[in-house]
Amino acid sequence: MLGKDKRVSEIQRYVRGADLPTTQETEKWTFVADKVSGNHTSEYLEAEGNCTLAMGDDSVRADFARYYQATGWVYLRGNIRARWQGDFLEADEAEFDLNNMLGWLKNGRVFVAKPHVYVQAEHVEKHPGDTYTFRNAQVTRCSGETPAWSVTASRGDINLDGNVRVYHSAFRIKNIPVAYLPYAKLPTGRKRQSGFLLPEIGSSSRLGFRLNLPYYWVINDEADATFYENWMSKRGLMQGVELRYAPDSNTRGLMLGTWLNDKEVHKSESDESDDLDNDGMTRPNRNRWWAVGKYDGWLGSPQWKLKADIDLVSDQNYLREFKNGSTGFTSMREQFIEQFGRDIDDIDDSNRTSRIYLSRSWDRFGVAGKVEYHQNLEYMNGNGDDDKDPSIQTLPELDVFAWKDAIAGTPLEFEGGAKYDFFTSNFGPKGHRLDLNPSFSLPVRTRYLTFIPKGTVRQTWYYTDSQDDTGEREISRFNVEDSTDTETGFKSRFNWEGGFSLFSEMERIYQLNEPLQPTLSNGGTSRWVSLRHAITPRVEYAYSPNLTGQSELPYFDSRDRLTGTNKVTYSLTNSFDRKLQRVVMVADDDGNEVPVLKTDYKDFLTLRLEQSYDRNEATRNDMRSTYERRPFSDILAEVMLRPAELVSLSLRAWYSPYLGSITEHEHLLKFYRDDLGEIYAGLDFREPVDEYLRYRDERMTMLRLGGKWKFANNMEVGVDWRQNLEDGRNVETTVDLRWTRECYDVILYLKTEPGDTSYGVKFDLFNF
C-alpha cells in the first residue's frame, strides 16, 4: 500500500506502520499473538509479542494486550499502533472498548483522516461520534517529528465535522512559539466553520507595524461574517466586519464596514505625504470609516431583480492610505468585479456613488427604478460648506422601455423608452424631468450588405422647483453658462437624431493540411487543418441638429445639453480563426484505449482600423484664428494576437494625421508556461494635445514590467514594476516570494509606492 495511495504514504511518514493488517471477518474481532495465557474461568486473556486484534479494516497491534471477555475492553501496552474507523493511532499505553469503538491513549499520536489533522498528546480520549478530546497536545497538518508549523494547547477537542478547538494555545514554527491564543477554533473540514483565520503581519512607513487578526463566523448555511482587529503602531486599532450572504445561485451580498480612531490628523496639506497633498483638501478628522458593499437579488418575486451598491467613506484620503490588506480598497474592488461584475469609483475619486436599482423584464418591454446618492468629499470635514454642496441626487428615477421588435405587417422595427427623474441638491437646481425617445429603424439585408437606417425623436419636459445661484457652470471647454440663466417652472425641448449603419462580411477558408484520421498511428498527433479569414468593413453615420437656448433649462446631468452631431465613422476588421484537430486515446466501455478525433477553434488574430470624419468640425467658423479645422479623428489601430497558449499580445495605438505621430498607445505582451511562470511587458503613453475638440496638457509615459518564475519545485518569485518615465517616479513596485510546502504556503512581500513602503509575511495553511 505504501507508495500507491498518496494519502497513506503521507500518513506513514508520521504514523509508523500505517499498513496494518485487515481481515475478511467483519462481525467479530480476531486475536492473535506470539503467546496467549488464560482459561475458561478467567475474566481476561493476556497476550505478549506481536499482539494483533482485527475486524474488517479496523486493527490494533501492541507488545502486550489484556482482553476482558465480559466487557469487550482491551488494555494495551508498548508500541501500540492502530487503524480505528479510518483514523491512525500510536501510543505507549491505551484502552479500547471494542464493542462501542471508544478508548483512550497515553502519550499518543493520532492522525484524524477526515480533517487531515495530526494530534500528539499526553492523553487522548475517543468518544462516540468520531469525537476526540486531548490534553497537553500538539495539533498540526504537517507530517514529521518536527512539523513546519503546529498549535500546542493545554486541552482541546476534534468533532465529527473536523472542527478543532484548542485552549491556552500557542502557534509555533518549527516548535518555536511565535503567538499566544487563549482560545482558537480552527476549521479543517469540508464544511465552512467558525474560527480564527491566519493573521496578516507586516510593516509600513506610513502605518507602522501592522497585525490584522480576523475571526470567521459561520452564521448559517446562507451567511457568514468576518471580524477584523487590525492594529497599526502609528495609527491605532482599525476594526471591521465583513458580511456575506448567498441563499441561492441568483442572490448574493457582500458588505464591509471598517472604522478607526486615527492617531494622526492632517489639519493642513503640508501635514500630508507628497502623494496626498495635491487635492486642495485637508483631513482634520480622527473618526474615520468606510462602508462599502454590493447586493444582487430580488424583491417580492424572482422576476423583480434588485441590485444595490453602497460606497460611503469618511474622507478623501482613507481609501488611499488603507488600500492594502484584506479590508483595503484593492482587495474589495477585485472581489466586487469578480463576484458581481460591477466596479466601484476610483480610489482617488472625491465623488462616491451609492444606488439601488430595481427592474423587471417581459418579452416586449421592461420597467426599472433607481435611487442614486452622490457623496461629495470636497464638502466634508470642513473642506467646504455642506449647504453649498452642488451634488445632484436622483430620488428617484423611473424607466419604461420597449425592446427592439418588428412592427406587425411592416418592415419597420421599433424601440423606445420613457424616463422620469426627480433631482434635488443642497445647492443647485431642484426639479423634475420626463424624457421620451421612440426610435424606428428599417433593416435592409442583401447577400453582400446590411443597411440599417434609424431615426429617433427625443422630447423632454422639465419642471424646475428652484435654482440657486451657483455662479458659472462649465458645460464644456468653450461653453460656460451662468446659473442665473436657468428659468424655473415648466420648460420643454424637442430634438431628433438620424443615421445609418452599413456593413458587410466576406470570408475565405484556406485548407492547410489534410484532415486527421482517428487511427492508432495518429495517436497524440495534432495540427492546424484550416484557416478562416473574415473581413468586416463598416460605415456608421450619425446626425442631430444644433440646438440653441438650452441655457434656460436646468442642468442636472449631461443629457440636459445636447450637442449637434454630423459624423461618419468607418472601420475595417480582419479576423483570423484556426481549426485544430488532434487524436487522443480514450478508454472505451471495455477498458480498451481507442483513438478519438478532437476538434477546436480559436480566434487567434484580430486587426482593426477605425477613423471618424466630423462634418461639423469641417465647417466650423468659431475660433478659427486659434484652432484650425481638424475634422479627421486619430486613426485607431488595434491588434489582438493569441496564436498559442504560450503568448498573447494586445496593442492599441492612435495616430494623428495632422501631427504625423502617435498621440496615444497601449500594449501588453505576455509569455507564459504553466511549469515555468510568466513574463510580461507593457508600455502606455499619451502625448499632450491642444485642439478645438480635445485638450490634454500633460505627457504620460508608463512602463510596466513583471513576471513570475517557478525556479524550484516549490518556490516562486514574482515582480511587478511600474514606472512613470516622464518624471522618473516609481508608481508601484511589488516583489513577492512564495514558498509552497506540504501543509502551508508562505508569502514574503515588499511593496514601494509614493508615500509608503511596506513589507510583510502572509501565510496560507491550506484553509486550516
UniProtKB/TrEMBL annotation:
GO biological process terms, semicolon-separated: Gram-negative-bacterium-type cell outer membrane assembly; lipopolysaccharide transport
LptD C-terminal domain location: 287-714
Matches recorded under InterPro entries: LipoPS_assembly_LptD, LptD, LptD_C
GO cellular component: cell outer membrane; transporter complex
One Pfam short name: LptD
PANTHER family: LPS-ASSEMBLY PROTEIN (PTHR30189), LPS-ASSEMBLY PROTEIN LPTD (PTHR30189:SF1)
UniProt cross-references to HAMAP family, sorted A to Z: LPS_assembly_LptD
Protein name: LPS-assembly protein LptD
Natural source organism: Pseudodesulfovibrio senegalensis
